[in-house]
Amino acid sequence: MELAFIIEKFALILVIFVISLTIAAYSTLAERKIAGFLQDRVGPNRAGPGGMFQPLADGLKMFFKEEIIPTESSTALFILGPSLALFTSFLGSAVIPWGQDVEIAGRMVSLQITDINVGMLYIFGVVSLGVYGIMIGGWASNNKFSLMGAVRAASQNISYEIPMGLSIIALLMSTNTLSMKEIAEQQHGINWNIFYQPLGFLIFLVCSFAETNRTPFDLPECETELVGGYHTEYSGFKMGAYMFAEYLNMFLASAVMSTLYFGGYNYPGMDWVNEMAGSVIGPFIGMGVLILKIFAFIFLFMWVRWTVPRFRYDQLMNLGWKILIPLAIANIVITGIVITIFEKL
Length: 345
Hints:
345 residues; mainly alpha
């Protein structure tokens, strides 16, 4: 393996890691600013100009706060829970194509850490692992409210992964590939999958809210019933790890939806822009477009949180099993019929 290739990959990993951390950190500020706007108040405005240093202040507070481990907890698992939740939230971005290949020093460099032919399945596997961090943390706390929140999280993730997977089957039927890069390349210009799979996207969007435990699906940490849910006994940096993992998962879900349904780094007039900007600047413009799409989805996550009340638990289960799964199956059938008709024409 060439040394230059290894350096390229390490550099790309570092850049994506920093971008992910920065967006997740400032998503906490955006969340509080958007909440303030919707509730007709200012939001954080003390730490730095306009509150720009608030995420740094919150991070330092979490880092230096006293760590309390309950005496009756399983210490090793109590530490493993938030560590696993934070670790798995970083893994999904490895298969996201962030832009077209860029020419640097005579070499074509891919703006994707790795292109595996089962990229979508990889993301599903990583997302499935994330619930173990919540389940382990809730169980290890030896607190009935934490355990109840962990059980809710596990059942919620299992329930909503099924319609999410079924919505991806319909997309697979349309694209004939599981590679994230190939799916992005097929949506060149404005040939986006949202126009071919609107119902599949809607199902995927709702399931993304459930998978990330965001309102109206935040039953695992329902403060009115469970104090704080699975992280009730956590404090300091471990508590911050759970909170940070939620925002990283929201970032990943936004990146996946942007890539699968909204063209990823593709945009109208991209060929003309690439011709004018050149083979070096053009791909980075596409990367900027993808990040703007991600910001739009993150804003949607936050807007819904401060607008829609949470479901009751029976409503949550009914929506997943009685509405989304039949809709996802119907979407597969409709997609198959449409594809068959077009093939015979």
